[in-house]
Specification:
Blueprint lengths: L2 H14 L12 H35 L6 H14 L6 H27 L1
Helix pairs in contact: 2-4, 3-4
Length: about 120
């Protein structure tokens, strides 16, 4: 998925709830629905990211490379921090992606160990 596709999806998501009406408990409903939809998209993307990392893990194993690649992880963090336009501060983005990377690395190790058995 390219940057243009991502921008289009974000634009659609923003347009759906762009209208501001009277403030009431009911006015939260479309925002909550939007969050629920975004959560499912985030989950699908995280799982796709994990599948991609597993494939990289298989390639690393075939090449005899280590699972942990600190320089690559730093490149990932630099990339997402450079693309961050907020409202999340860079510290929060860094924390989230460090967790994503850590969980993905852990999965990569488990998958590698399972294949060895």
């Amino acid at each position: 998925m390219g940057h243009d596709q991502i921008k289009r999806i974000l634009s659609l998501l923003r347009d759906e709830t762009a209208e501001a009406g009277p403030v009431s408990e009911e006015s939260m409903r479309p925002w909550r629905t939007k969050i629920d939809e975004i959560d499912l998209i985030v989950l699908a993307l995280l799982n796709e990211r994990a599948r991609s990392a597993n494939m990289i893990g298989k390639i690393k194993k075939e090449l005899g490379l280590a699972v942990y690649a600190p320089r690559r992880e730093e490149q990932v963090l630099e990339q997402v921090l450079g693309a961050n336009t907020g409202p999340l501060p860079d510290s929060a983005v860094r924390h989230l992606f460090e967790r994503i990377i850590d969980e993905t690395r852990s999965l990569e190790r488990r998958m590698s160990a399972d294949e060895s058995d």
